[in-house]
Write a structure and sequence with these properties.
Elements: H1 8-11, H2 32-38, E1 46-50, E2 53-56, H3 57-74, E3 81-85, H4 90-102, E4 105-108, H5 113-123, E5 127-131, H6 136-146, E6 150-154, H7 167-174, E7 187-189, H8 190-195, E8 213-218, E9 228-232, H9 233-243, E10 255-259, H10 266-277, E11 282-286, H11 294-301, H12 310-318, E12 334-336, H13 343-355, E13 362-364, E14 367-368, E15 373-374, E16 376-377, E17 389-393, E18 398-402, E19 416-421, E20 428-429, H14 432-438, E21 439-441, E22 447-457, E23 463-468, H15 481-490, E24 496-505, E25 513-521, H16 527-536, E26 546-549, E27 555-556, E28 559-560, H17 562-573
Parallel strand pairs: 1-11, 3-4, 3-5, 4-8, 5-6, 6-7, 10-11, 12-13, 25-26
Antiparallel strand pairs: 1-2, 8-9, 9-20, 14-15, 16-17, 17-23, 18-19, 19-22, 21-22, 22-23, 24-25, 27-28
Helix pairs in contact: 3-4, 5-6, 9-10, 12-13
């Protein structure tokens, strides 16, 4: 390892773990459509699997061309914004690639119907895309709040047959339908939409521009106000290209299972759909698996790779349907992104893998919608996961720690704001003021993404993420959620199964915060049984104002529902 200057952005010590040739890699200067097409291993090879049906590369690319013509026939074209409310179905891929061909962008959101309509209103679009279980009640909101005149409706059973689908998946799909379908005069079927291509004779392809907006997705709102994040083909390829080696097996084509997660999330589209699709993985789309049935789908498909979030693995570990001798060795990699994993969650996950004959390391990862999805890769095997370890930056990225709210770079092991520069960073938000706060030009001349996450990097280039924002307590001291959680977990207090903190605003002291500890306890234990040991495990300023028992960890948009709990605390404070 060369001598360190003290500036991580200059030293980039994580590069010692990559082959030398990785330093000279360059993101291809091509369209997303070109990159996808060039990744084709053979037109007759299945590009993906959808509930009993293999869809070949030829079929996928042919549908893309048809969709592009049909979009033009509807009046969409250069710089159009097309609202799409699909699950992770094969047609979403065709829509995205077709939008690029005609110079348009997709707008995706999965919040309340009012927030979805707000997103549509911003686009000016009169025609939207949704699944055929959309109700007339919801359509009325799109009509009244956004001026929508027509919806193209896609059936979940398109490209498959019910006989190929397990009952629990069919039950989930059927539960989505209402007794109030969209009126005939407001709807068009997906099949009729595709048929529009047969009569369209005008120009289809727009001039290529890899920096033009292509994909607009909204942050989940689980940590604050939902914002529209804008990506281009080039920013998306910045991550897709770097993700290519992940999960590579060499002697066979690994299977990659995507359960539940919708394409309104940047990570899903970039790292969970397009990355495996373009790196010779067998992509299995399973969008209608209820989150509580991921255990059944894992045992049914036996995938080699399965993009995980904490909620999925919790379901798997708590399942009574997974036999104690079930063999999980089909997994080549396992880890959780989406939010920080505390030491207890990591230990339980690793133990579960070992008990099921899967001798891989359960890893943690880090990323943001604004960063194009993944920011890091798993760290070298000599480093144990825990205490916020989220691995090393991807090879073409630069990451470092800066004094919050400034462009002053900090040194190794100093706590500050994690910032990222390099391929994958968003074009911006749809709000110039918010963009200016997130994408900042530093003294080195480069534009850095300020993530708002707090952490540090050590001399070996391993990054640690501990909390979000700078939460100070009025009486003194900084509240760092993950550090506090790990103090509780590492104390191994009898009765505690899980524990996490919510750092909520201090109503009595504006600008300051208070810690609330939530615990999941073994049967027979109460908060009184663990209170003293829990408080003793913490620093004085970390002592919770209240310890609250829950039956299980609550989730919202697949993350721990801290914002919902914060709202409850604020309401109670009144």
């Amino acid at each position: 390892m060369k001598n360190l200057t003290g500036k991580p952005s200059v030293d980039r010590p994580w590069m010692q773990y990559y082959p030398a040739e990785f330093a000279n890699l360059k993101v291809p200067e091509c369209t997303l459509y070109e990159y996808v097409r060039n990744s084709c291993p053979g037109m007759d090879v299945p590009a993906m699997h959808y509930y009993g049906t293999d869809i070949t590369w030829a079929e996928m690319l042919e549908e893309t061309d048809t969709v592009a013509k049909s979009l033009k026939a509807l009046g969409y074209g250069l710089n159009s914004q097309i609202p799409v409310f699909f699950h992770s179905v094969p047609q979403f891929i065709s829509m995205l690639l077709a939008a690029e061909k005609i110079g348009a962008s997709l707008v995706c959101r999965d919040n309340t119907i009012e927030e979805n309509a707000e997103a549509v209103a911003k686009t000016g679009a009169k025609i939207i895309f949704a699944h055929d279980y959309l109700s007339q009640e919801d359509m009325d909101v799109y009509v009244e709040d956004a001026g929508v005149e027509k919806v193209i409706l896609l059936s979940p059973y398109c490209k498959t047959e019910k006989k190929n689908i397990p009952d629990h998946i069919i039950n989930q799909i059927e539960s989505l339908y209402s007794q109030d379908p969209v009126r005939e005069d407001l709807r068009m079927s997906w099949e009729d939409f595709l048929a529009l291509a047969d009569t369209y004779t005008g120009e289809v392809d727009a001039p290529s521009d890899i920096n033009r907006p292509l994909y607009r997705a909204y942050t989940s709102g689980s940590t604050g106000t939902s914002k529209q994040v804008i990506h281009s083909a080039h920013t998306m390829l910045g991550i897709i290209f770097q993700m290519a080696p992940y999960g590579a097996a060499g002697d066979f084509r690994p299977s990659w299972l995507l359960t539940c997660l919708p394409p309104c999330l940047v990570a899903v589209v970039v790292s969970m759909i397009l990355s495996p699709l373009t790196s010779n993985k067998y992509l299995i789309l399973d969008p209608y698996c209820d989150v509580n049935d991921v255990d059944l789908e894992i045992m049914r498909y036996k995938p080699n790779l399965w993009p995980l979030i904490p909620m999925f693995f919790e379901v798997l570990m708590q399942s009574e349907r997974v036999p104690k001798d079930y063999d999980l060795s089909h997994l080549l990699a396992a880890g959780a992104g989406c939010e920080a994993y505390n030491n207890g969650q990591l230990a339980r996950s690793q133990k579960f893998l070992e008990e099921h004959n899967c001798h891989i390391t359960f890893t943690a990862a880090y990323g943001q919608s604004e960063a194009g999805s993944n920011c890091t890769f798993p760290c070298p095997p000599q480093y144990k996961y825990g205490n916020g370890n989220i691995g090393i930056p991807m090879p073409l990225s630069n990451m470092s720690i800066f004094k919050p709210g400034t462009t002053e770079e900090l040194g190794y092991n100093e706590l500050g704001e994690i910032c990222k520069m390099g391929p994958g960073n968003m074009i911006g938000y749809d709000n110039e003021e918010a963009t200016a706060k997130a994408l900042i030009r530093h003294e080195d001349g480069n534009v850095w993404l300020h993530t708002g996450d707090i952490g540090y990097v050590n001399e070996d280039g391993i990054f640690y993420v501990l909390t979000r924002g700078n939460s100070l307590r009025f009486d003194g001291g900084r509240l760092i959620a993950l550090t506090m959680e790990n103090r509780i977990i590492d104390a191994e207090i009898d009765g505690i199964v899980d524990a996490f903190f919510v750092i909520a605003p201090d109503k009595a002291h504006k600008g300051y915060f208070l810690p609330y500890l939530y615990v999941v306890l073994e049967d027979g234990y109460t908060v009184d049984d663990i209170r003293e040991e829990a408080i003793n495990a913490l620093e004085v300023h970390e002592s919770p104002v209240e310890i609250i028992q829950l039956p299980e960890r609550p989730f919202f948009h697949f993350k721990t529902n801290r914002i919902g709990l914060t709202n409850q605390l604020m309401a109670a404070a009144h």
